[in-house]
Amino acid sequence: MTLIGRMREVAWGAICAHGHWAASMGGAAIGEPAKLVVEHATKRYETRSGLVHALEDYSMRVSDGELVCVLGPSGCGKSTLLWAMAGLHDLTSGQVLLDGEPVTRPHPQIGMVFQEANLLPWRSLLKNIHLPFEIKHLRPQDHSDRITQLLERVGLLGFEHKYPRELSGGMQQRASIVRSLSVDPSLLLMDEPFGALDAFTRDEMNLLLQEIWLETGKTIVFITHNIAEAVFLADRIMVMTPRPGRLANVFTIDLPRPRPLEVTAQPHFFELVAEIKGSIDHGDSRADAVVELV
Ligand code: ADP
Ligand code: MG
């Protein structure tokens, strides 16, 4: 038997024209509605020193409730892709669809978590969580039950009136997750959210994220350059090439859930990590230097 349930496909040019999706894209079966679709996304930045070709003909679809990791070396265009998914910038060509509708600007159904927690230092934790409501001219009081539940869920109840400087990096990032989820988005986009945390805290956060995902059924796209993190979290891993980022491979990870942290010490887990790493090395040796193994 090959690695359990693992499906590896070379996905270059896997998309048919006119929105029909080839089976080799993975994810929802053909005909199933996709929560999020990226179609032929290409992005070139115009800079003073010339064009930077960040993303080339990248396509993927994400099913409702799926947890997909996008894995690739630093600088390959992952954030560029996620910003387009969030409607934070335009693509040079291609499009992003959420529930079938083009995403052209920030969308109320899309939450985002960045590598830095980006909490405002002069606001308490609770006031930081209230910020998205204020921006949307909503009354946070009307959502206080959900906010309290989320704070409790991530172990921050009792810390609401602390200021960011009084919280550890992991606590700040938990607060930023609460801030994103408090407006109840259906899609959560996470850009290397635990990349700045120490290894122990990162493990805890990955476990917590899995629990929240299992409880809430949110659709999550999680960007990382850490292979082990992607294998632990993902239903599917979309591997990108070095810049300009293209979709190189798709791996389906069917390790049973909930996945305990101990799964990362099992031989099969190492096999999956090694296989994905091998595929990257095989594709382009430059990737080896910049993709973290563990
Ligand atoms: P990753 O998130 O995978 O590290 P990015 O999407 O941030 O990669 O960047 C991809 C490439 O695009 C890099 O070469 C980066 O320097 C470039 N880039 C990103 N944002 C901009 C921008 N606003 N203007 C010009 N170049 C950019
Ligand atoms: Mg990035």
Examine the secondary-structure arrangement and name the CATH architecture. Answer: 3-Layer(aba) Sandwich
* CATH fold category name: Rossmann fold
Low-confidence stretches: 1-29, 282-294
Q: Rg from C-alpha positions? A: 19 Å
N-to-C terminal Cα separation, in Å?
25 Å
- Write out the distinct hetero groups bound to the structure: adenosine-5'-diphosphate, magnesium ion
The percentage helix is 25-40%
Q: What string gives the helices and strands in order?
A: EEEEHEEEHHHEHEHEEH
| Superfamily (CATH H level) name | P-loop containing nucleotide triphosphate hydrolases
Which features characterize this protein?
single chain, 294 residues, alpha/beta, Rossmann fold, 7 helices, 11 strands, globular, disordered N terminus, disordered C terminus, binds adenosine-5'-diphosphate, binds magnesium ion
